[in-house]
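Inputs:
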Amino acid sequence: MNILGIHTTHDAGAALISDGKIIAAVNEERFNRIKHYGFLPINSIDYCLKKAGIGIEDIDIIATSSSVLDPSLKLLFNLSDREISKVYPAFSQLGNLKARIKSNIYKYLEPREVLPDYISSFKIKDSTKILPTDHHLAHAASAYYTSGFKEKCLVVSADGVGDNISIAIYRGENGKLTLLKNYGIEGSLGLFYGMVTESMGWWVGDGEPKTMGLAAYGDPNSFPDFILKSFMPEYENGTLKKPYNYAKINRFKLFDCYHFHFSELSSIKRIKDTYGDKNIAAKAQYLLEKEMIELIGYWAKKEGVRRLATSGGVFLNVKLNQKIVEANIIDEYHVFPNAGDGGLALGAALYQQFNICGEKNIPKLEHLFLGPEFSNYEVESILKGRNIPYEKVDDAALMAAKLLAQGRIIGWFQGRMEYGPRALGNRSILADPRKKENTNIINEKVKFREWFRPFCPSLLYEVAEDYFHTQREEFFMITAYSVRKEKVNQIPAVVHVDGTSRPQLVKRQHNEKFWRLIKSFQDLTGTAVVLNTSFNIKGEPMILSPRDALKCFFDTGIDNLIINDFLISKD
Ligand SMILES: [Fe+2]
């Protein structure tokens, strides 16, 4: 059985599950180079089908990531009104006012376009089922069905808002997700954090990691809580004690991406101007952690579980995840690494897979190498075609380790591209973590981004406990940890100002070549850690192809580029 998951708004993408196996998962921004692109994921669907060696006519189920009809689906799959009404019966049942209004809205939204001939390859067969999957259910499914949890667990999805819900609480048990409670937009902690992010001049749904990074430089006690609390909801004992009535949320569409912005912004900016950007960021981070831990703690206790799986954009906040781990409200914690809406295509597909098959055995996600790869032949053809001098190397991992040990900053491009926002050793910029100055050099001359942005370490799985106070298996850079005091000065370029770091533990079986690179670096230097940041510059999606890699390499201060077995050097 072939299940195609698709997500067509913010961070659009596609994922394919064939006979229970995840074959491919990608986000459209990587192909069209428009960050957070939110419309038809045509290239992503195309890639998923090609990877599986099948056509759209072989798809049995299309799992969409919303319970609300996206009119673009009709365009994409060339569906008639009759077919649409079978999928979304609410639109054809005019028995209540709400459905009538929705139906009329749909008519207004009905696209008049049809796909041009050169992309008309998405005609599905009559028996293909289109199964709408609620936004937060798709988030929850991405968390639960990748957790590896064998026993009952709590599953929490939290974001700005999706399908009119901001936080949804589920029980995961025997392969089934059961909704326990959800909270509407008036309970949104994600939008609160987004408002503070916008007050810094950053894009809501993109700049939140910057707010989190800046928070470490501020003092959450620099001004009273109530000053910022008046712009957020509050929870107590699982209930929304104080809903927050968000004023009109505005949006602006630019290159098929939505930029959301808030009417309360001038009030939040006044707080920022009075107390400083670092302090308002620290306060927002503190309040987010406090409310979310209160809510999760309540539900975990009520359900009698110490096991938690999460997804939704709020859980991209690695400091929040650290605090959840440290709060002693749970023992086991799994965060789906592509927690934002970029992960919804896979979440929707996983939900339908498990519900249709009734599978009870939940596998643990081992890796995210689910995107395109390029052969040596393809890479060499591109280099030759552009007259770019290169050298073919026998052992790319060893060569990279040697260059890093010499103090070089390298672009590292191997195998299948990562799914999600983190570079995990296949589309990475790497540097020596022992040199503190690499933080400034990479921020200023390679990624062209803010001075306070931290960098992360990738380290051998075998040495994790030497560096961090944890026994958790952290493969995806999705949780921060305190670095052991005696190690801080050994790897200063990957330790944030608050003494924490967001590591990737690299297991040999997950990525042999990247593991060997770090091992070789250890053999040369005694340090089994490298600085690993995503292969892109500020404001651009992570690279996908050799061509993207070459453009980024020649446009930045990266010293050497290794693509598969080919070394390209600026000198
Ligand atoms: Fe979401």
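Residues 91-95 have pLDDT under 50 and may be disordered. Flag for discussion at group meeting.
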